[in-house]
Design brief:
Blueprint lengths: L13 H16 L5 E10 L3 E7 L8 E7 L5 E3 L8 E6 L3 E10 L5
Length: 109
Amino acid sequence: MSIPPLFLDEVKDEYIRENFKFIADYIRDFPLEKGQFKFFKIEVSSPLTNFKWPHKLGYQPKDVIQTYVSNGATITWNYDSFTNELLDLDASTACTIRAFVGRYEELNI
């Protein structure tokens, strides 16, 4: 995810140009912008240990921002077992998990 280039030099009004610059800087500083994240919905049909789930990111993710889990399930993300192809997690019961998965990086933009 990245912010599209803004042609600030084309904006003649200095106040509007500064506002666009402020908005662009704000978006660049947003945590999900500092890396490569993809949103996933994972369905788990029963309690599982070391459940392997294909993420298709093309790289080994390092970070998970879990946004939702159903049925009061406890989810353990086994980060050390993540690979370029698979996530690894434990679920205490059948559930639906929603999460952003990726890699947070400080970018020099």
